[in-house]
Automatic annotation (TrEMBL):
It comes from Pseudonocardia acidicola. InterPro entries: HAD-like_sf, HAD_sf, PGP-like_dom2. This is HAD family phosphatase. Gene3D superfamilies: HAD superfamily/HAD-like, Putative phosphatase, domain 2. PANTHER family: 2-DEOXYGLUCOSE-6-PHOSPHATE PHOSPHATASE 2, PSEUDOURIDINE-5'-PHOSPHATASE.
């Protein structure tokens, strides 16, 4: 709109910069399978957008993955780190868009992902600066 000045651009991480939902689902399903648990039909959709404390409590309380939520969260995040280390699932054009917009406006990142994963994505994508 004419006259309106944009002050900054804020990106989300999952689904905007990285295509990660499928990886999250694979890792969480893997934990359930290791415990010989069946995967509830609604579990994948239910956990989308949840914070780490929320989805780890869901995995232990609803799915039945053994362990305390904090331990389950640490295991899932460790496995996600390993997945990102072997191949970061950047969405096409994500880096270019961030660089182009960053040359004009201050940038921010909003995410419910653990800080450890955020840092890995930014570092491996060359966007940490």
């Amino acid at each position: 709109m004419p006259g309106d000045a944009m002050a900054a651009v804020v990106f989300d991480l999952d689904g905007v910069l990285v295509e990660s939902e499928e990886l999250w689902d694979e890792v969480r399903r893997g934990l359930a399978a290791e415990a010989a648990l069946s995967w509830p039909a609604e579990a994948t959709q239910a956990m989308q957008g949840m914070s780490t404390p929320e989805w780890s409590a869901y995995l232990t309380g609803v799915v039945g993955v053994p362990g305390r939520p904090e331990e389950v969260a640490a295991t899932v995040v460790d496995r996600m780190v390993a997945r990102y280390a072997s191949g970061l699932p950047l969405l096409p054009g994500a880096v270019e868009v961030v660089e182009r917009l960053g040359s004009r406006w201050p940038l921010g990142l909003a995410s419910s992902s653990p800080r450890r994963l955020i840092d890995i994505v930014l570092e491996r994508a060359g966007l940490a600066g």
